[in-house]
Amino acid sequence: MSDSVVYAVADGVATVTLNRPDAMNSLDTPTKVLLRDTIRAAADDPAVRVVVLTGTGRAFCVGQDLKEHIGLLQANDQAALWSTVPDHYAPIALALAEMPKPVIAAVNGVAAGAGASMAFACDVRVVADTAGFNLAFTGIALSCDTGISWTLPRLIGHARALELLYFPRTVPAAEALDLGLATSVVPAADLPDTVAELARKLAAGPTVAYGAVRQSLGYSASHTLAESLAFEAGKMQETGATEDHHNAVASFVAKQKPTFTGR
To answer: In this entry, which stretches build a coiled coil (predicted)?
Structure first.
């Protein structure tokens, strides 16, 4: 079993760690398969109430492993070259963006190409002050993938998204915060504790309600107001039937702080 992705669950928090530090956490095929399957497992695990995605070493993830890519180009293996987008990158993006629980990107270092795309598919990006983003696709004459065409314009607008994709450069953490790529920027030494505190807070919250909010925002991005209102109504009924809602209302009446179980 490859150890290029490390998975750990504790107190409702699942941490998915890319673990190829010598390759700056680049994504070869075994790593992509394991990452896809691990994120899907976290999404489906009822014991997991929040997911953290991060990397080891000096990079979060620099995207596709170019050594592998060059080998496939030289072998003219067209099937392996391009099937990776629908087989690996797209499912990873969907699992991150659509799972019914919060997802945090703990951006410990540079996030480039698909690495940046994965971070943008998360709800929250806590970024080390030494980290940055590089939308490197056109720098090697490729289009973009892993959902960035959908997520990036929604974070920073269409025109700015085009600019960063047309003219790839490393966007440092402070600028990323100003643009809206980062949710928060913290000293690199504080990143683990900051993310752990945020993850604990989310893991102690109303998980079903968080998932419904994620799904409602995602749905509304490509549907009409009338359709979104109907979707909201369904999610209100769903969350209204949870133990967490009933307990929270009872706690409000009793003037007590509610405790959420995620059910």
So the answer is: none
Q: Is 102 helix (H, G, I), strand (E, B) or coil?
A: coil
Please tell me whether residue 184 adopts helix, strand or coil conformation.
Answer: strand
Find the Cα–Cα–Cα–Cα dihedral 138, 143, 144, 145, rounded to 10°: -140
Per residue in 161-175, pLDDT tens? 999 999 999 999 999
What does pTM read for this prediction?
0.93
Q: Which residue type does 171 have?
A: V
CA distances (Å), origin 156, targets 3, 116, 262: 35, 14, 32
For residue 238, pLDDT over 50 is answered with yes
Of 100, 101, 112, nearest in space to 18 by CA: 112
Greatest alpha-carbon span in the chain: 69
Q: What six digits make up the tokens of 244?
A: 């967490």
Calpha distance 10→67 (Å, rounded): 35
Q: How far apart are CA 58 and CA 107, in angstroms?
A: 10
pLDDT of residue 23: 96
